[in-house]
Amino acid sequence: MRAAALQYVRKVSGFRAPAAHNREVFDRAVDEITAATMTLLDGLEIRGAARS
Q1: What is the average per-residue pLDDT within 38-44?
Q2: Which residues, 6 or more positions from 6, have their beta carbon under 8 angstroms from its beta carbon?
Q3: Apex CA 28: angle with CA 26 and CA 34, to 5°?
Q4: DSSP secondary structure, the chain, as one string
Q5: What is the rounded CA–CA span in Å between residue 26 and residue 37?
Q6: What is the pLDDT of residue 49?
Q7: How confident is the model at residue 52 (pLDDT cuts 50, 70, 90)?
Q8: Burial, 6: exposed, middle or buried (Cβ in 10 Å; 0-12, 13-18, 19+)?
Q9: Is the dihedral of CA 4, 5, 11, 14 positive or negative?
Q10: How confident is the prediction for the chain on average, in pLDDT?
């Protein structure tokens, strides 16, 4: 999940690696997006059986 969040933040910010003065906000965004993604996936309910 973290790798996907990092890719998203890189895409949205336009920076592959942030400057030192932006590192904290960049890393915080990655952490928050990772957490939000985990919350989403943990909360999803799948109905029906898997098809084989």
Answers
A1: 95
A2: 30
A3: 105
A4: -HHHHHHHHHHHHT-SS--GGGHHHHHHHHHHHHHHHHHHHHH----SPPP-
A5: 17
A6: 64
A7: low
A8: middle
A9: negative
A10: 93
Tokens of 14: 């336009």
pLDDT(15) > 80: yes
Q: Which of 49, 12, 4 is nearest to 31 (CA)?
A: 4
Query: Residue 18 to residues 2, 11, 37, 43: CA-CA distances in angstroms?
Result: 17, 12, 22, 32
Alpha-carbon distance of 22 to 6, in angstroms, equals 14
pTM greater than 0.70: yes
